[in-house]
Amino acid sequence: MKKLLIVVDMQNDFVTGALGTKEAEKIVPNVKARIERAEKEGWDIWFTKDTHGEDYLKTQEGAKLPVEHCIRGTKGWEIIDELKGYAEHVAEKPSFGSVDLAEAVKTGGYEEAELIGLCTDICVVSNALLIKAVSPELPVAVSKNCCAGVTVKTHEAAIQTMEMCQIEIR
């Protein structure tokens, strides 16, 4: 059975940098343990990287969230040190969700996909719903203890939303 673990945006700026939170820092050991288990079980492991250019503040997202983050080539854009060694397959994404990622999952012959990472209430939920939309019969899961949101309240709201959309919450 071919399975896929998607590690969403575990980048310096989301853990300890410009948009970092204590909740994001707390999940790092859980994320690392989940990746190690998936690796032992023979799962494919893909990472995503939120990626912006130097013109970020001139974009729609930059106007609504005027905090420069994940600018290509900066330390904040990099995968956190604890996980770098696992990040062999990395897909950059210029937005919250990636249609290209969803299509790759659809055509990849996977029998299951699981998402972990940051932020539950923005990029995790966006990508989980996109994958479910293009592959409605594919079991899609999210590991709650391997995710963190912008706030605890919005993390929980995203978990509820995904559960309502038939995404398994583990």
TrEMBL record:
CDD domains in UniProt: cysteine_hydrolases
The Isochorismatase-like domain, residue ranges: 4-164
Gene3D superfamilies referenced in this protein's UniProt entry, alphabetically: Isochorismatase-like
Signal sequence interval, chain numbering: none
Keywords attached to this entry: Hydrolase
Family as reported in the entry's similarity comment: Belongs to the isochorismatase family.
Protein name: Amidase
Record organism: Claveliimonas bilis
